Amino acid sequence: MVGLIRFVLSLLVASVLGLGAASPSMAGVPSGTLSVPLGGGESYIFEKGDKLDEIAKRFGVTVKAIVKANGLPSSRRVIPGMVLTIPTTPDAISPAIAPKIDPKPADGKVIYISLSKQHMWAYDGDRLVFDFLVSTGLATEENPNRVTKPGVFRVKNKLPEAYAGLWGLRMPYWMGIYDAGDIENGIHAMPILNSGRSVRWRVGSPGSYGCVVLNTQDAIQLYRWSTLGTLVVIRR
After folding, report:
1. What is residue 90's predicted lDDT score, i.e. its pLDDT?
2. Residues 227, 157: contact at Cβ < 8 Å?
3. Quick one: three-class SS letters along the chain?
4. Residue 135 needs a FRET pair 20 to 30 A away by CA distance; which of 70, 83, 94, 151 works?
5. How far is Cα 66 from Cα 118, in angstroms, rounded to an integer?
6. Domain ranges in the chain?
């Protein structure tokens, strides 16, 4: 009986969305999920026993974003059978996951960073502008938190040069992106010691104290191209 109700509900939703009753795109879709766009995102049929936090984790978004996208009450009560919109806009994405976002012209300028590949791509809409190697945070036994955090951020400030008193480093072409405790992590050129000697982390391999570091000439180009508010997507 439950299966029949779910099938009828699927037919009703398909009818509203203009889909065929036997749409091939539905094949292999996990129970409760509709793989069709709805309101600028994906959709999910809420079933008895479902929990919003588990759905949010599954889709890599925040619970707050789901509540807002569906106009849910403060109690966050969802009636089984309700079709939830799962938003896919950058501000809805859970900072812990940062999945790939295919660039679109409407996105404007976006910087993508892969921690596993130690690589950066900068897009203007769907046009690739820069393709650089980077060096991100390297955790050590003494400093296990020296890592670059995956997430979706924006360039929050820009300085010709910032100074890291904790490490005694000057960081040219600084672009701050997120807070890391009492300090801020960002994107910058190869740092400079107080003595004036440059620090040379090998791009293409982790090595920094948590920031995203580029060769100086690459950092200059990125700094001049980016603007405050430029989207920065860091993923594993």
Report:
1. 52
2. no
3. CHHHHHHHHHHHHHHHHCCCCCCHHHCCCCCCEECCCCCCEEEEECCCCCCHHHHHHHHCECHHHHHHHHCCCCCCCCCCCCEEEEECCHHHECCCCCCCCCCCHHHCEEEEEECCCCEEEEEECCEEEEEEECECECCCCCCCCCCCCCEEEECCEEEEEEEECCCCEEEEEEEEEEEECCEEEEEEECCEECCCCECCCCCCCCCECCCEEECHHHHHHHHHHCCCCCEEEEEC
4. 94
5. 32
6. 2-89, 105-235
The CATH classification of domain 2-89, taken from the options 3.40.50.261, 2.30.42.10, 3.10.350.10, 3.40.50.1000: 3.10.350.10
AA letter at 2: V
pTM: 0.58
The β-bridge partners of 110 are 123, 231
Residue with tokens 């974003």: 65
State the CATH class of domain 105-235: mainly beta
On the 0-12 / 13-18 / 19+ scale of CB atoms within 10 A, 4 is: exposed
State the average pLDDT for the chain. Answer: 77
* Higher pLDDT among residues 73 and 96, named by residue: 73
Chain segment 128-153, per-residue pLDDT in tens: 999 999 999 998 777 777 889 888 88
Contact yes or no for 38/17 (Cβ under 8 A): yes
Pair of tokens at residue 147: 């890592």
Mean pLDDT, range 189-204, rounded to an integer: 87
